[in-house]
Write a structure and sequence with these properties.
globular
Length: 225
C-alpha cells in the first residue's frame, strides 16, 4: 500500500497512516450547498474521526479518535476554543432545528473549555455553554446547558430544557422537564476539580499530537509539507 500525501502524511510510522475524514456535506434536496469544515491550524483531529459539512472548530481543540462530527442534516456546528471531544463522541443535528446564539442560528453550539467525555451524544438543536463537562455516555439533545454545569455519566438532558449555570446533573438522571432542571443543585467542589483537571490534561493534547503528525495545516484541517 503506497503512502498517501495529504492529511497527516508527514508521519513515517505505519500506525500513523490512518487519516481522519474531513469533507464537505453531500448535496441533498434539504441541504443543496456544499460547505467545507473550517478548522483552525492549532486543532488536532485524530485518526478515524469524521468532520463533515459546515463545522467551525476554533483554536486548540482536541478531537480524539472515532469521533463523528456530522453536519450533513442539522447545520451549522460551532466548537469554541480549548474544548476537547473525546473518543467515540457523536455530534449530529435535526434538520431545520436551530438555537439562536448572538445573531446567528446553530444546530449545535459548544462554548470554550468544554469537555465532552467518552461515548457521549450531543444532538442538535443544542447549546452547551463555556466550561461545561458532559460525562461518559451522557446524552444532550434539544437542550440549553448553562456555563459551568456538570452532566454526569449516563445522564440524559432533553425535551427543550434549560439547565441553569453551574448546575449538577447526577449520574443516570433523566432531566426531561423544566421542573427537574430548576431543581438541580450546584456543582460540588470535587466535580469542579475533576472537570478542571480534565481540561488541564486535554489542553496539552493538540500541540503534543501536532509534533507526532505534523503541524502545518490549512483552514480545512489538511496537513501540508
Amino acid at each position: 500500500m503506497s503512502e498517501k500525501k495529504g492529511i497527516y502524511s508527514s508521519s513515517r510510522s505505519h500506525s500513523h497512516a490512518f487519516e481522519p475524514f474531513i469533507s464537505p456535506n453531500p448535496i441533498t434536496s434539504f441541504n443543496p450547498v456544499q460547505r467545507y469544515p473550517k478548522i483552525d491550524k492549532t486543532v488536532f483531529v485524530s485518526q478515524f474521526s469524521s468532520v463533515i459539512g459546515d463545522v467551525t472548530i476554533k483554536n486548540n481543540v482536541y478531537v480524539a479518535p472515532n469521533v463523528s462530527i456530522r453536519a450533513d442534516e442539522g447545520t451549522p456546528f460551532h466548537i469554541s476554543s480549548n474544548t476537547n471531544i473525546q473518543d467515540g463522541v457523536i455530534l449530529h443535528g435535526l434538520l431545520n432545528r436551530r438555537i439562536l446564539v448572538g445573531s446567528k442560528r446553530y444546530s449545535i453550539f459548544i462554548g470554550n473549555q468544554v469537555s465532552i467525555a467518552h461515548g457521549a451524544l450531543v444532538h442538535g438543536p443544542c447549546f452547551i455553554g463555556d466550561k461545561v463537562f458532559v460525562g461518559f455516555n451522557a446524552i444532550v439533545y434539544n437542550a440549553i446547558v448553562g456555563e459551568g454545569s456538570f452532566i454526569s455519566y449516563n445522564a440524559v438532558v432533553t425535551n427543550g430544557v434549560r439547565i441553569l449555570p453551574n448546575s449538577f446533573v447526577p449520574p443516570g438522571a433523566n432531566i426531561d422537564s423544566q421542573e427537574k432542571a430548576n431543581a438541580l443543585s450546584r456543582v460540588p467542589e470535587d466535580s469542579k476539580e475533576f472537570a478542571r483537571e480534565v481540561q488541564r490534561v486535554n489542553q496539552e493534547f493538540p500541540a503534543s499530537y501536532q509534533l507526532l503528525f505534523g503541524k502545518n495545516r490549512c483552514s480545512c484541517g489538511i496537513s501540508y509539507d
